[in-house]
Amino acid sequence: MTMQVSDISFAYGSRTVLDGVGFGLRPGELCALFGPNGTGKSTLYRCILGHLRHQGRVMLDGTDLTRLRPAQVARRVSYVPQQHSSPFPFTVRDMVLMGRTPHLGGVFGPRRSDIEHCERVLERVGLAGDGDRLYHTLSGGQRQLTLIARALAQDCNVLLLDEPTASLDFGNQMWVWRTVQDLARQGRTVLVCTHDPNHVRWFCDRVLALGRNGKLLAEGAPSTVITAELVGNLYPGVGAVTTAGHGAVVPADVAGVG
């Protein structure tokens, strides 16, 4: 399923956050939305999803998303927020089952097939033994894994993730990125928001670099976009691109180990 974002602009009062942002997303490709905090990445997601009124258009397989009912959008696009808190004492299983809501045909609740689907998803994310735990008692990393499981249970062709590894330890960060890669390889359209240039270079097929002026600074393969010039532009005096110097912990397959 292809997505085309055209000329998206948005402002909070007099402060322009997004200025004419446009790009396309293709099935089977893992694309990163990269930039520092405060550049409007999360706002762009909210515009794409229709949560904010904006200028520009978002097309999904040639259909304007504003012409679809919320339930129709939810069957096509799933979203993993950067953080989430629940005011109710839902269990982990309840949270994941919510991902099946767009697929339910009536008022009788989830079917056996929905419950079995969610149990498989819980096993996939390593939470098979935690289904009865209360969501609000989990660690930040476990809550994030639950939100990812909910998105997987939603079973959409387009997946938007906003800083999905921000609360996770290194091992779980690698697991999430590998899972997201697998979803893209299965033919899904995947956009991942991140401010970590290493994750972009290690895992992504394409990157969209969003600047502090609300415009796209560059688009293309990570090896050609994540350059010393771009890093210096986004993080003045802070970052550099190098292949020498201090040692670094990287995924085993990136290092050619194992």
Automatic annotation (TrEMBL):
UniProt entry keywords in alphabetical sequence: ATP-binding, Nucleotide-binding, Transport
PROSITE patterns xrefs: ABC_TRANSPORTER_2
Domain ABC transporter: 3-238
Superkingdom of origin organism: Bacteria
Family matches, as InterPro entries: AAA+_ATPase, ABC_transporter-like_ATP-bd, Metal_Ion_Import_ABC, P-loop_NTPase
One of the Pfam families matching this protein, by short name: ABC_tran
Gene Ontology MF terms in the entry: ATP binding
PANTHER family on file: IRON COMPOUNDS ABC TRANSPORTER, ATP-BINDING PROTEIN, METAL TRANSPORT SYSTEM ATP-BINDING PROTEIN TM_0124-RELATED
Identification of the protein by name: ABC transporter ATP-binding protein
Source organism of the structure: Pilimelia columellifera subsp. columellifera
